[in-house]
Amino acid sequence: MKQERTAFFSASMVKRILDKKSSASKTTEKATQKFSAEDIGFENIQKAFKKIFPEARFLKNVILPMEEDSLVKTAEYDVMVVCAAGIHIFEIKGHPKGKVWYDKGDNGTRLWKINNGSGITEIHDPICQGLGKLNYIRKSVQCFSKYYVYFTGDEIELEPTIPATVVTTDELAYVSRLAYSDAKFRKSLVKKEEVDVIADAILEISSQYTMAEHISNCREFHGQKQDKHGAT
């Protein structure tokens, strides 16, 4: 029976994970059909973090429940790195090329845009998009966590005013080094055993949800938005 909004670290869950014998088959990171940009992003993130965090666990396309008051019942995490420096969440953006910037809207919101040479396209605010995901992880797991937006394209140019948590492939190595340096400075490096507990707990929760269910939740949300607009 599906658990409702379970926090990751219930005592029984942690005991169950720690009691598993090392010879048992390892929990498999979820695999669903991927877009090529996500494959490229996942591989590049692995390369950057594995050099510094050999104990790291890399999870992709993880579906997790959101808080009760969230607009969408579930969320998809493109890539999650669980390592000695905590949990690092990456939202993958697959634009192959272009200059990325944002303007301030009338109500103070950020209007993200990309010019790929053939025209200007608006992008959903990727930072705002991930705040709910990050907040849920921070409330559920008692370790450091951080959220990044990763543009995988080789010809992406970021405006200097873009937040530092928005990165390109060239910056991934620096991100991993900084993550280690910060964790060491805070004296909060996570042990290998704890890394596995966190990753396995996330996957155990995620196993209760499917991509089809998440897509249905998103469609339900967008349908409600359209109904509201139609009523006005």
Short account of what is shown:
The chain is an alpha/beta fold.
Please tell me about this protein's structure.
The N and C termini lie far apart (40 Å). The protein is built from six helices and nine strands, in the order H-H-E-E-E-E-E-E-H-E-E-E-H-H-H. Helix content is 38%, strand content 25%. The chain has helices spanning 11-18, 36-50, 126-140, 172-186, 192-206, 211-231; strands at 57-65, 74-83, 86-93, 97-104, 110-115, 120-123, 145-151, 155-158, 166-168. Mean pLDDT is 83; it is low at 1-15 and 20-34. It has a domain at 35-95 and 127-214: Trna Endonuclease, Chain: A, domain 1, CATH 3.40.1350. By secondary structure, the protein is an alpha/beta fold. The protein is globular, with a radius of gyration of 19 Å. The strands form two sheets. Strands 1-2-3-7-9 form a five-stranded mixed β-sheet, sandwiched between helices. Strands 6-5-4-8 form a four-stranded mixed β-sheet, with no helix packed on it.
